Amino acid sequence: xxxxxxxxxxxxxxxxxxxxxxxxxxxxxxxxxxxxxxxxxxxxxxxxxxxxxxxxxxxxxxxxxxxxxxxxxxxxxxxxxxxxxxxxxxxxxxxxxxxxxxxxxxxxxxxxxxxxxxxxxxxxxxxxxxxxxxxxxxxxxxxxxxxxxxxxxxxxxxxxxxxxxxxxxxxxxxxxxxxxxxxxxxxxxxxxxxxxxxxxxxxxxxxxxxxxxxxxxxxxxxxxxxxxxxxxxxxxxxxxxxxxxxxxxxxxxxxxxxxxxxxxxxxxxxxxxxxxxxxxxxxxxxxxxxxxxxxxxxxxxxxxxxxxxxxxxxxxxxxxxxxxxxxxxxxxxxxxxxxxxxxxxxxxxxxxxxxxxxxxxxxxxxxxxxxxxxxxxxxxxxxxxxxxxxxxxxxxxxxxxxxxxxxxxxxxxxxxxxxxxxxxxxxxxxxxxxxxxxxxxxxxxxxxxxxxxxxxxxxxxxxxxxxxxxxxxxxxxxxxxxxxxxxxxxxxxxxxxxxxxxxxxxxxxxxxxxxxxxxxxxxxxxxxxxxxxxxxxxxxxxxxxxxxxxxxxxxxxxxxxxxxxxxxxxxxxxxxxxxxxxxxxxxxxxxxxxxxxxxxxxxxxxxxxxxxxxxxxxxxxxxxxxxxxxxxxxxxxxxxxxxxxxxxxxxxxxxxxxxxxxxxxxxxxxxxxxxxxxxxxxxxxxxxxxxxx
Length: 693
Hints:
The chain is of the alpha/beta class. Among the domains are: 192-350, Valyl/Leucyl/Isoleucyl-tRNA synthetase, editing domain (Isoleucyl-tRNA Synthetase, domain 2), CATH 3.90.740; 536-685, Isoleucyl-tRNA Synthetase, Domain 1, CATH 1.10.730.10. It contains 20 helices and 25 strands. The strands form nine sheets. It has a four-stranded antiparallel β-sheet. A four-stranded mixed β-sheet has the order 10-11-9-12, with no helix packed on it. Helix 8 (370-381) crosses helix 13 (483-498).
């Protein structure tokens, strides 16, 4: 007797018609929560989701990490593990405030004209709305994460632990507050870490200026108003007649000044004339020289990039405007020796607005990183944490070995306030004021300071059941561009607070680019929305397009045509199912075909276990399409003798192929599974087809 064919298989597979219903079925089952999984599960598997910034829609990079992490989680779940994929959302401090500032600009408003409390409230409303929208998008991509454990980086639990870490760093003398030169963005009016700046090559004018008996060279004459020290190398024979501390009079930008000779070995005798004046407030090298010689220094450019009263008639001008007028005045005084119009040099810019960084001296909180980095280096070298691909391990170690102290203060409203108070040069660490006359620190934490604690915070460090069960996590899957921003800091802070590495492996993925290999940007008009693509081709097709051929750590060119091919693959699986279900399930399972399938399953299992996910996906694709559909099924159509019937064999291969495919293409496999004879449960908790009993 022929099996009854479900009516839905008489039509092509329609992803849009089934995906929402399938996800609802998964969510209602409760199986995203590892505590609800069937059977006896003693071995945990944990992934902590890198929390997407709750300030906009998900992009192609988000779709990639969702796909990879979901594959890992579904695989572990089917392998009988207590699988937890814990989701979250990031307030993303500076990043989100920048996004909101752009919205304010469109409205003709500015954050500098707003009360901090009002700005915070508006950004909070904006962020929570985006967070809710983003969660819906994650569901659309098939994310089988445990929503009951979801956490936001501004939740009280997170803030409390961040404060505890800050206090501990202070108690352990790994935290200090000092007036140091910082990377300052005058557009956003905040300091930035070294990682939040970029170096670009630029051609500018290079000015050779007469400074008394010397010629000095600079690309920034607008900073020179406070230059009252001329520095030279003590071994430079050209200037042997000048003694350290010697003073002389000279005519300068706004009139006569008294200059002092300073001898310092930091001077490059081969650069220019071998003589330089110093602007300690606005140059890191100059700052260090001033500190070594205990020299006073003065701010010339304000926090918004305007010249201060020290600049005299140029006060209030922006840098670009002021520079031209200053040079014009110097020339009129005969103080311009020459101008090089083609001076090529590297300039430090803000990674968000690309405005040139204006170094400023500011009192900030710094973390002493050397002790933290040394423990992380040891953990990597001992193999306590492995990096995929391996070449990123060397990159990580190089950065840790050359680490600098970390400025964790940010001059933004949106973030976790720094729990510190000051009074007459004294500092108190704590959320509450210690008494009358104490001033609250106005700054917030660098968002990476809180995000760097994410793995152990989310699991309820130090005493929760989740922390004891799921920490350290199995793998941290994230973008290769975050290896320093986030991965290194999670490793250091995790070791510092818990004594253990926060994850056993780090899986780095590259950037998702357009079909031509170009970086996606709104200005180029080449942005590929993953949600739009999934609606057109189906989420399973998108996921396969993101995974096949995507080796760890390398960029992926995403071609919609490629995704279209995997839409056809989803329909091929659908058609295979229709054919197999139309056959009587008789005959013996052919041992040679079973052995072939089992070997393939074992190979794929090993690939996933060793994080060669791209290879596993490609092998599955070719087996199902090229071997199962094109050869085995076609061969079965030519058999007419009862003894050689393929029914049982075809069903065996179909059922177990669906199990193998499920982590990669969860929607179509789940929709099919419920229509197989005797299958009343969900494929997401079915046993993986290897090893076999």
